[in-house]
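[step 3/7] inverse_fold.run input=structure_tokens len=312
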């Protein structure tokens, strides 16, 4: 379903007062924080290069390989902020409430990459040369989500912000490092508030035209892919992250899609037309298939981990 220009303008106009109200609510709920206060600077020391410090070596990292991979994926995803800013501005507006939110959101998101990179450097958790090369390659690909119109953008962002929150939070919990856990928990708080903004926009849109919104939500959920898809070696990194339980099909179903659709009361809506009913049926079918795939993945992972343990 493609959104034509007239409908896009309609939705921008209809939802702008809601965006303004939600941004004010967000500003009142958000709490100021400073990335430099979450970085263990006392652990840092010079690297090799112009300063003649010590080269990075794998044994300097105290983190498990899967946690390192998750941190790299999370960081490179955050690094792509210029592209996300452009995409949101192109699908909404850089003026009025939409523009105000875009710039406020960008300012908050920008500190995430700064804080995570500083933590990784100070703790020597990952190879800094490989990390910088991956950052440059990631941005050079120009790979970005391409939502269709303002409804597509709002639907995608609601799912993606929640998925990012969950990924950061799970990475911190599995890190074994209280400093990392604290930092990523703080980043996840930002992501949660951003998710709430987009989720509540979706809720407001459902009240205006549930059929059209469900069509867009169904299409978005079916085609959803995290924005890190374009980064070098993403498939291998994602596989490692899934095996570790940071983010996998079970997490995507249980902690992202199901809670979001439940909060929006999608399966309790009444008065839908044929298009809305079909879209809702499509969402239910997608959840059921995803649940079945997640169960198979969890079973295969358990067998593989048991076999690995037996070998060791």
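[step 3/7] decode complete -> sequence:
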């Amino acid at each position: 379903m493609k959104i034509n220009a007239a409908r896009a303008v309609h939705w921008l106009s209809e939802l702008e007062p809601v965006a303004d109200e939600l941004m004010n609510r967000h500003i009142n709920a958000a709490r100021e924080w400073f990335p430099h206060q979450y970085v263990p600077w006392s652990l840092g020391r010079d690297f090799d290069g112009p300063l003649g410090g010590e080269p990075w070596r794998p044994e300097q990292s105290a983190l498990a390989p899967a946690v390192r991979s998750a941190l790299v994926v999370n960081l490179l995803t955050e690094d792509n902020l210029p592209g996300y800013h452009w995409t949101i501005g192109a699908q909404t507006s850089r003026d009025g409430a939409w523009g105000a939110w875009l710039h406020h959101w960008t300012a908050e998101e920008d500190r995430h990459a700064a804080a995570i990179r500083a933590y990784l450097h100070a703790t020597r958790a990952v190879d800094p040369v490989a990390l910088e090369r991956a950052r440059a390659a990631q941005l050079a690909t120009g790979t970005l989500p391409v939502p269709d119109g303002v409804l597509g953008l709002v639907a995608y962002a609601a799912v993606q912000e929640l998925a990012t929150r969950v990924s950061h939070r799970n990475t911190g919990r599995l890190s074994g490092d209280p400093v990392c856990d604290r930092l990523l928990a703080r980043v996840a708080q930002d992501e949660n508030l951003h998710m709430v903004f987009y989720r509540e926009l979706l809720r407001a849109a459902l009240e205006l035209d549930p059929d059209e919104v469900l069509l867009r939500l169904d299409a978005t959920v079916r085609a959803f892919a995290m924005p890190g898809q374009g980064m070098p070696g993403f498939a291998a990194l994602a596989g490692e992250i899934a095996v570790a339980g940071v983010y996998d099909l079970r997490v995507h179903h249980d902690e992202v899609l199901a809670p979001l659709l439940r909060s929006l009361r999608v399966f309790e809506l009444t008065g839908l037309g044929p298009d809305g009913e079909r879209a809702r049926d499509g969402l239910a079918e997608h959840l059921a298939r995803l649940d079945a795939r997640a169960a198979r993945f969890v079973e295969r992972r358990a067998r593989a981990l048991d076999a690995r343990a037996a070998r060791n």
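[step 4/7] annotate
Residues 274-311 form the longest helix (38 residues).
The mean pLDDT is 93.
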